[in-house]
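Retro notes (design track)

What went well: tokenization of the new backbones is finally stable.
What didn't: we kept losing track of which sequence belonged to which structure.
Fix going forward: every design gets posted as structure first, then sequence, in one message. First example under the new rule, 85 residues:
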């Protein structure tokens, strides 16, 4: 859809569900950590001994990050998954 809007309509302003569905995430991060932005960059996973994933399917949602995370897990890091469902 984004490619269609950019190519056919010549417009880079494409709305997504992220504005709505990620607002609880931003609120939770702001309340817990004082910022609504992510608390770590993707590269920091390679120095992590423990990785905590909350409410996400990393392989499906972020395959590049998932590959780094799986590499680190094979090196001995521990994984904690919290599924709010």
């Amino acid at each position: 859809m984004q490619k269609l809007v950019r190519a056919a309509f010549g417009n880079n302003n494409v709305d997504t569900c992220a504005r709505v569905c990620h607002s609880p995430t931003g609120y939770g991060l702001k309340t817990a950590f004082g910022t609504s932005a992510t608390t770590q960059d993707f590269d920091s996973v390679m120095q992590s001994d423990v990785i905590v994933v909350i409410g996400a399917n990393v392989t499906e949602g972020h395959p590049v990050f998932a590959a780094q995370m799986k590499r680190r897990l094979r090196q001995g890091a521990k994984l904690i998954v919290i599924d709010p469902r």
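Added context from the reviewer: DSSP finds five helices and two strands in the chain.
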